Structures are given as C-alpha cells and as structure tokens.
Amino acid sequence: MSVLEIKDLHVSVETDQGTKQILRGVNLTINEGEIHAIMGPNGSGKSTLAYTIAGHPKYHVESGSILLDGAEVLKMTVDARARAGLFLAMQYPVEIPGVTVTNFLRTAKTAIEGEAPPIRTWIKDVRQSMTNLRMDKTFAERNVNEGFSGGEKKRNEILQLELLKPKFAVLDETDSGLDVDALKIVSEGVNRAKANTGLGLLLITHYTRILRYIHPDFVHVFVNGRIAEQGGSELADRLEDEGYDRFLVPSNVG
Amino acid sequence: MSAASALSKSASKTVPEPSTPATSASTLPVGQHGIKEHSDGRFGYVPVQTRSDRFKSVNVADFQAVTGREAVWKHSPVAKFTDLTAGDLDGSRYLIELTPSAAISVEWVPRTDARIGTAGLPEERAAANAWGVFDDALAITVSGEEAKEITVTRSALGNTARGAHTIIEAKPFSQATVILANTGDARLSENVEIILGESANLTVVSLQEWDDSAVHLANHFASIGRDARLKHVVVSLGGSIVRVNPSVRLAGPGSDTLLLGLYFADAGQHLEQQVYVFHDAPKSRSRVNYKGALQGQDARTVWIGDVLIGNKAAGTDSYEQNRNLVLSEGTRADSIPNLEIETGDIVGAGHASATGRFDDEQLFYLQSRGITEKEARRLVVRGFLTEVVQQIGSPELEARLQLAIEAELIGTDDK
Ligand SMILES: Nc1ncnc2c1ncn2[C@@H]1O[C@H](COP(=O)(O)OP(=O)(O)OP(=O)(O)O)[C@@H](O)[C@H]1O
Ligand SMILES: [Mg+2]
C-alpha cells in the first residue's frame, strides 16, 4: 500500500521584500485510497503546499521532508516526482501554444510509463475520458489550455488525472470557477479515477460544495502555514457555518 | 484590426519613386522611414524619406564603401563579408539539382532577358555587386493552372565569393510551389526576382540549411500582379551569416501576400531578415509572420519589418508580426517593425513584435506531467515554431522542416 508522508515541512519564497515564510511545519499522512480535504483562508499557504509537493522551483524548502513510500520526494526533479506517481491539478493551468492536447497527453503518458502506450487502446482511452468529462472531440486538436475557459481548463486537468493514473493527486481548487453541472462532471471524473486506481487525494478547496460529490475521509483546516485542526467530514460542515474566525484570532493578534 | 489599431502612423510626404538612380553621394541610402529627419534649418524642410525613396542602383560604384553605419547594414557584421560588398565576385553558372516538374521550366537565360530588373533593383552594395557580375540568370518559369511543386537545390557553391541572379516568374493564372534549397558551403550575394502575373498563385520557399561556415546575402524582389497571391517563406537554420531580405510590391489591385519566416540561431550564428511590403495598389492585402528561436552564446537575429501603404493603396489590409523565443543567455534578437501610411483609406494596418524568454511556468507544467526538462523545452520550441511551419502548405516540406527543427533542438542540447 502506498503512502505519502509530509513531515514538519517549512517553506519560504523570495519576495521583493526578502524571504517570506509561508509553510510553518506541515504534518500530513495520506494513505492510498484516502481523501483528505484541506480548507483554509486565502493566503494561508494551500497552493504553496501543493506546489512544494510537485516541486515548483519558486518554493524553497527550509526543512522537513516529503516521503512517497519512504523515498524522499524533495530530492527528485519535478518530472521524476510525476513519474514516481504524484500529480498536481493546478489552480491556474498554463497555456502551451503550439502543443496539441493529443500530443501533450501522449508525450506525458509515454514519459510516465517509460514507453509509448499501445496506440489503439490509448486513443480509445482518451476518447472515453473526454466523453466522460463532456469535452468536445475538437479539444484534442487544440493547443493545451489555449483559449480554454476556466472550467475547460479544470476538465483538462482531470482528463490528465484519469489518463496518467497517479498514486497521489493534489487538486488545488479544482472546484473554483465551475458551475454546478461542471462541478458534478469534474467530481465524477475524480471519483472514477479513484475507483479505477485507488489513488489517494489531497483536495484543496474553499467551499464545501465539492465535498457533496467527493466525500472526504479527513478534513484539515489550514491556517497561517500549518494545519490548525483536523477531523472528519463533519468539520467541513462546521467550517461552512462558522468560517475560519476562531482559527484566525491568534495569528491576527500578533 | 482597424486603422485605429495601427501602432505608428506617419503622414509622410509622398515622393515619386526615382526612375533613374541618383548618383550623388548625398542621396545614398541612409535614413529610415518613420524617423523624422529634419535639416538643421539652413536648407529648410527636408521631407521624411519614405521607404520607397531609398536609393536604388544596379551599379556597385554608385554605392559608397560599406561602413556598417548605413540603415541597411547597421545590424550586420559587415567586416565579415567585405568580399561580397567590395570584392570581385564570380558570376558564372553553378551546379543545381532539381526535381523536374511539368509546366515549370528551369533554364539559364542571358542578362538581356526582358524580365531582369522588373521586380526590383538593388538598394545596397552587396546586391549591386552581385547584379553587376552574373553571366546568366537562373530562370524558373511557371505556367499551368494545376498545383505543382519544384525543388531547386544548390549544394556545391563552395567558398568562392559569388554573385548570382534568379528569376521566378509565375505566368497569369498559374500555380506552383517553388522551393529554393541551400546546403553546403557558400559565400554568396544574390538577387532573386519574383514576378507574378495576373491571378497567379505562387509559393516561394527559400530554405537555408547551409554549413556552419556559409555566408549568404540575398535580396528577393517580388512584384505581384492583379489578384495574384504570393506566399513567401524564408527558413534560415544553417549558415554563419544569413541575410535574406524580401521586398514585395503589391502592384496590382487585389494582390495578396503572406510572408512567413522561421529561423533558429545557434551560438555565433547571425540570421537576419529585412522584410519590406509596399502596398502600391488598391485592395491589396499583406500578412507578415516571422518567428525565431535563439540559443547559445552570441546567437544573433535581426528582423526588420517595413510596411508602406502608398497613396494608391486604398482599402488595403496589412498586419505584420515578429516573435522571438530566447532559450539561453548570451543571445540578441532585434525586432523592428515600421509602418508608414500615406492614405487615409485603409481597412486595417497593425504590427506586433515580441521577444520573450522561455516561460518557466510552461516548463513546470509539462515537467509536472512527467516530461523531462529537455523534452519539455523541445515541445515548447517546436510548438512555438510550428505555427509558421503549418502555414507553408506543402506537407512534404512541412514534415522535412519539423525534422530540421528537431535536429536544431538536438544540436543545441549537445552544446
Ligand atoms: N512569489 C511570491 N511572492 C510573494 N508572496 C508570495 C509568493 N508566492 C506566494 N506568496 C504569498 O504566500 C502566501 C500563501 O500563498 P498561497 O498561494 O499558498 O495561498 P493559498 O492558501 O493557496 O491562497 P488562495 O486561497 O488565495 O489560493 C500568500 O500570502 C501569498 O501572497
Ligand atoms: Mg491557492
């Protein structure tokens, strides 16, 4: 059974005003097949955690470790992390001009599997996943994310999740900017991926509405660079009613 | 794209094109349109020199020795090819290879051929030097309405300083793709005249895959007749110094041109293109799209795009753009668009120019999907250049260019 362990993670970024501390000791263990939701106010460091797991060069790890089945993820290049089984659905996916979705997906799949996927089944898989996500066939020949609407970009992220079959996926606000229908479609995609591969999920969100479709096993409240409280799905409901105020009080005083 | 979107619009004074070359040194080709040059007052007002006013001559002696300060030379390493601007050139025939095609004749014609000088005349010394020496011109004449393609390859020019002249004529209503492929070594200055008769549809591709040592200075002069369409493509990948400057005159009403360029400069390479589009007839249309990548120490590219919408060119539509992708430190890309409009009645005129570094976020996105950094870079560069390749319209050539770009990318990985 796979496990992703984040241990006492401290992360900073360089800003014009100097080094800024963002993550201040994050501890989190995700087992295969588990769904963890992370909720927290703007600027609390949720995306920083997501990007640090994926290895974005902007974020500087000061201390701590991230282990995937015991192997130190922090020592791996960005692409090696993906090949090891990590996936990040980004909050703001970037456009890649001149690279079609088809070409991109095939290149990524080949990189992750270490060999080109058998052409027939691959084309079938891509079509099926696109149909499931209600993505028009024409997207296949469009350039990655170029001119995609916010919702289309998110679907494209989940398309990759389904096709690349990671062991662990971090979804950074995949729900924001989606209307109800799209939210359902995307959630179904995530649930399908989980049912097919048994992946572990770290779901970053501001709202409980996605949790109606994707049921978390654990909910973590993220405040000021660390996990302030954790519980079951009932915690999410409480957050929806009460907001983050009671967590914010201490950090706001200083 | 409306007239209002034009980024620079100068109501320059129109001066008729000089029919005979001036000989006085004071009218030598300096200055550039768009830059308003005024006298110091003693001689009163000096009109802006429009691009069409540039001094022209077929006689090399009419041009002063090249200093590198001239508008046409100031971006080029002129000291490295004084043999072409000031030396004696070999104007004899050279070896060509070709894939024969019905309804396209390829032959050597004498200097007295009536077509010579009809599409344009030299505006600088290297071009005039070549014009003076060629024994025979290579004439590629296209007739017949059916689509066809021909490739004329030069691969054995060697390192003798040469001057050459080529005529490509598309008869009225004819259609073809003419590919001029260049490989091997060369020290060449040449003029290429492209003449499109009424309603002709011609694609000309000049493909520079020279050896690392080659120096190639080319001026292409095109004249496009009524309702005719020229697609002109400059692909510069190989060579030490490659300067291919297309000048296109939209001479007939309804004439249309698409000027494409693709270049990839490695360490030490100088790749230059000075594009000039002259709208000289009503309802003419032009699109210019040049894209380049630079990688390695002293990789250098120059793109100058002059568009002149003359006073006869009512109802024209033009847009030019140049984009450069900088892949490493130590490179330099110059990108200079100029737009000059002499008529108030235009459908659209605009330009865009951008030189950007490799986008780290794109790289991160691709890598986060398991793709190695090297492969991710290739994908992005290929993607960037593909837009131009896909517009060429010759599947075989497109495939070949994709491979050539691939080879460039692999080549740069090794450095
Ligand atoms: N490059 C940077 N320069 C300056 N500050 C940064 C930089 N990157 C992140 N930050 C800051 O770090 C903090 C955490 O940002 P992060 O994006 O991780 O928050 P978040 O919890 O994902 O917020 P949101 O809910 O708005 O997405 C914010 O205050 C942000 O402004
Ligand atoms: Mg965020």
Automatic annotation (TrEMBL), chain A:
UniProt similarity note: Belongs to the ABC transporter superfamily. Ycf16 family.
Domain of life: Bacteria
One GO molecular-function entry: ATP binding
Domain annotation ABC transporter: ranges: 4-249
Keyword Electron transport annotated: no
PANTHER family to which the protein is assigned, alphabetical: ABC TRANSPORTER I FAMILY MEMBER 6, CHLOROPLASTIC
Record-linked Pfam families: ABC_tran
PROSITE patterns attached to this UniProt entry: ABC_TRANSPORTER_2
Protein name per the record: Fe-S cluster assembly ATP-binding protein
NCBIfam families, per the entry: sufC (TIGR01978)
UniProt key word ATP-binding: yes
Keywords: ATP-binding, Nucleotide-binding
UniProtKB/TrEMBL annotation, chain B:
Pfam families named among the record's database cross-references: SUFBD_core (PF01458)
Secretion signal span: none
Low complexity composition-biased segments: 1-13
Residue ranges with Polar residues bias: 20-29
Domain SUF system FeS cluster assembly SufBD core, chain residue ranges per copy: 160-384
Positions of region (Disordered): 1-43
Protein name according to UniProt: Fe-S cluster assembly protein SufD
Higher taxonomy: Bacteria, Bacillati, Actinomycetota, Actinomycetes, Micrococcales
